């Protein structure tokens, strides 16, 4: 069954807005686990505008599910991952000034770089995943880097869902099928929500994990974190 990794970036955004420690991100992660999350995702950005490098260290000490650390593998990110040893590193090609992640890797153009970074992580036993657009052509090159998984960048699925979910999901199915063919595990994330998750999870072959933050934490404002996590888990079960 597909695992739910809760992205807690937005908990850190709220904390940072007042400069103190409310809400506490470690407590939020532990509660998310207690309420059923099967993983915790963080995306420490270079400006540390939400998750800080120290948060990643603190989280790794206490969480009991998988820690998924996402980001652009700049030197400081690589050093942090090698120090903390998360269960999974997801490589995302985001620019320093990007509002949020806005594309997958061109795995053909960056194959050499990705291969080197992945070898570094794999030598330390860290599972690796490459964030990709829904483009089957990217899969062969992703597989050649030695990565374990790909993460489908689901923004275009989420934004196209209301207009026609069959059309919106088609390139994701083709890309996931190609990944399965090459022996890569499939993760997904970005703008997944209570509205669009169920169809995604039941249509994408071999979907191992989804990481969800923005919509889930927003839903929790109205529904509470425990109830919200249960609702997301239900979308993955039915
Ligand atoms: C890789 C990905 O899609 C998520 O990490 C997403 O970008 C969340 O990051 P922000 O919370 O910084 O928008
Ligand atoms: N990898 C995607 C992720 O962690 C969460 O993205 P979003 O739900 O905040 O858009």
TrEMBL record:
Record field: catalytic activity: 3-amino-2-oxopropyl phosphate + 1-deoxy-D-xylulose 5-phosphate = pyridoxine 5'-phosphate + phosphate + 2 H2O + H(+)
InterPro entries listed in its UniProt record: Aldolase_TIM, PyrdxlP_synth_PdxJ, Pyridoxine-5'_phos_synth
Cell compartment(s), UniProt: Cytoplasm
Annotated catalytic residues: 43, 70, 190
Binding site for 1-deoxy-D-xylulose 5-phosphate: 45, 50, 100
Binding site for 3-amino-2-oxopropyl phosphate: 7, 18, 191, 213-214
EC number: 2.6.99.2
Gene Ontology MF terms: pyridoxine 5'-phosphate synthase activity
Function: Catalyzes the complicated ring closure reaction between the two acyclic compounds 1-deoxy-D-xylulose-5-phosphate (DXP) and 3-amino-2-oxopropyl phosphate (1-amino-acetone-3-phosphate or AAP) to form pyridoxine 5'-phosphate (PNP) and inorganic phosphate.
Family: Belongs to the PNP synthase family.
Protein name as annotated: Pyridoxine 5'-phosphate synthase
Organism: Alistipes indistinctus YIT 12060
Phylogenetic placement of the source organism: Bacteria, Pseudomonadati, Bacteroidota, Bacteroidia, Bacteroidales
Gene from which this protein is expressed: pdxJ
């Amino acid at each position: 069954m597909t695992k739910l990794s809760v992205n807690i970036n937005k908990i850190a955004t709220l904390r940072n807005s007042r400069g103190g420690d409310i809400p506490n991100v470690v407590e939020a992660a532990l509660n998310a686990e207690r309420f059923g999350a099967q993983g915790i995702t963080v995306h420490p950005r270079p400006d540390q505008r939400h998750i800080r490098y120290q948060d990643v260290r603190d989280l790794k000490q206490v969480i009991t599910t998988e820690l998924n650390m996402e980001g652009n593998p700049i030197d400081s990110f690589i050093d942090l991952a090698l120090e903390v040893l998360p269960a999974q590193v997801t490589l995302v090609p985001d620019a320093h000034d990007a509002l949020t992640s806005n594309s997958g890797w061109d795995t053909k153009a960056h194959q050499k770089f990705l291969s080197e970074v992945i070898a570094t992580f794999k030598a330390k036993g860290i599972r690796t995943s490459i964030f990709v657009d829904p483009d089957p052509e990217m899969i062969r090159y992703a597989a050649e880097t030695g990565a374990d998984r790909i993460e489908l960048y689901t923004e275009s699925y989420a934004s196209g869902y209301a207009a026609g979910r069959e059309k919106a999901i088609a390139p994701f199915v083709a890309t996931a099928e190609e990944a399965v063919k090459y022996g890569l595990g499939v993760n997904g994330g970005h703008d997944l929500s209570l509205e669009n998750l169920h169809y995604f999870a039941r249509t994408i072959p071999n979907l191992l994990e989804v990481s969800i933050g923005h919509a889930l934490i927003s839903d929790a404002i109205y529904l509470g974190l425990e109830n919200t996590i249960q609702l997301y888990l239900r979308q993955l079960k039915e």
